[in-house]
Amino acid sequence: MTMYKRLSEIKIGQAVIIRAFENDDIFLKLMEMGCVPGEQVTVEKIAPFKDPISVSVAGYTLSLRLNEAEHILVEEI
Asked: Which sequence ranges form a coiled-coil region, renumbered to this chain (predicted)?
């Protein structure tokens, strides 16, 4: 069985694959921004208090709040 991590736990420079969303409320919003299951995401920057984080996804940079990133389950590459 594969163990998934939360996007909020990933370190700067690390690339991961989105596998699932825990929260249906945020699911549609993230899908519209290119965060779809199977998409590769790289953490680019993390703010001093860990909120927000900046990720590269689908060819552009996206800023996510920590509480949003906590609901994105990812698999390390």
From this structure: none
| Domain that residue 21 falls in | 5-76
- pLDDT for 13-60, tens place per residue? 999 999 999 877 778 888 888 788 999 999 999 999 889 999 999 888
Residue 9's region, left for phi above 0, alpha for psi from -120 to 50, else beta, is alpha
Residue 12 tokens, joined: 């700067």
* Residue pair 62/35 in contact by the 8 Å Cβ criterion: yes
Number of domains making up the chain: 1
CATH number of the domain encompassing residue 39 = 2.30.30.90
Q: What pLDDT shows up at residue 30?
A: 82
